[in-house]
Amino acid sequence: MTPFDLVVRSRRTVTPEGERPAAVAVRGEKIAALYDHAAPLAATEDIDLRDLALLPGLVDTHVHVNEPGRAHWEGFASATRAAAAGGVTTIVDMPLNSIPPTVSTEALDAKLRAAEGKCHVDVGFWGGAVPGNVKDLAPLHERGVHGFKCFMSPSGVEEFPPLSVAELRVALEEVAGFGGLMVVHAEDPALLAEPGGPGYREFLDSRPGAAERSAVETVVRLAEETGCRVHILHVSGAECLDVLEAARAGGVAVTAETCPHYLTLAAEQVPEGETAYKCCPPIRSAANRDLLWDGLARGVLSCVVSDHSPSTAELKVPDFAAAWGGIASLQLGLSAVWTEAARRGHGLADVVRWMSANPASIANISGKGGIKVGNDADLVAFDPAADNLIDAARLHHRNPVTPYHGRTLKGAVLTTWLRGRPVDGGPHGRFQWGAR
What we know:
It is an enzyme of class 3 (hydrolase). Belongs to the metallo-dependent hydrolases superfamily. Allantoinase family. By secondary structure, the chain is of the alpha/beta class. The chain folds into 2 domains: 4-54 and 376-386 and 407-422, Roll (Urease, subunit C, domain 1); 58-362, TIM Barrel, CATH 3.20.20.140. Helices cover 28% and strands 23% of the residues. Helix 7 links the parallel strand 12 (229-232) and strand 13 (254-258). Helix 4 crosses helix 6 and helix 10 packs across helix 11 (348-362). The longest helix has 18 residues, at 209-226. The two termini are 38 Å apart.
């Protein structure tokens, strides 16, 4: 038999069937076979991680890269380097915060030109649904975007306005017609308010969990009426969980995600003026966090993705009413989630399901999300016991702003392979496309 190009062995290989000792054999860019950990194999390179864990590359379907137009906030080169350093081998870029936003095929072409030759991991793209672009949705779908992002409340940037409920219905009918996916920032604008002051408590009170619940109820109703598949983005309010659970039990095609910051941080811990913690919807109470973990464990929430939404330090002024809302965490999601998951009794197989297999499935990304024969050889050597002291200045994010600065997280990524090749600084990522 021709020797394999690469064999990676670990006593803690996380496969779709669970964690077990295994040798992962790679030929070309694909996983060719799985063997017993100690199986004698001929290979150009044979690496034994022993008791370190071997994970599939993570799939982060909620990343704001911001290029072109706001590349000083983040760009494809820095974002994908950060992704690789955090064990993420595939990202899907959000359509807003770049100029132009990805709301037409012409804007998608601009995005591709900006990304060409810069990507250290694989990159897919969401299209955008905004007022007046219904005619652009089918052509974007034909080009291979993974679905369409929309807002029900102001997005924070004027070039990506929200949809009214009536406009959302029309967009859902259009997307349902070609079997696409709508991903929704669900907050009811009627229940949002301007913060009453500069502090975190005033900001939190201005965006209550009831606003999320009301919007999710609307999305579920419209999804049921139109037959469109929908995905609720960045659930922070536990008030949404029973609505989502009932919808799924009733056969509505709805999934939902949450984010590392909602699972690991709490409102009680947010220091006054530390606007690195500001995001929309906001980080809520520790009791709310416990309920999100319960929803994740029961499958009401399907996945955990970063919602990496960076900005320059200058936009994070020490006023929660005025600061840019977004958390930079692309490089840190695995360690952050593992820290809290392990404390709560979850295993690496759970984390991989939430952060790799399920996001890949929801966004219809083939060949990703699991260590199994035929998939891309996207692999991560991970030390789950390592202490990881976070220094924002040493991250690959373009700007050194993160609420995890100074925290010690558990777990460290040692090596990331993309299609059997170590991600060592070369921009070898490819574009990933959804079903057409």
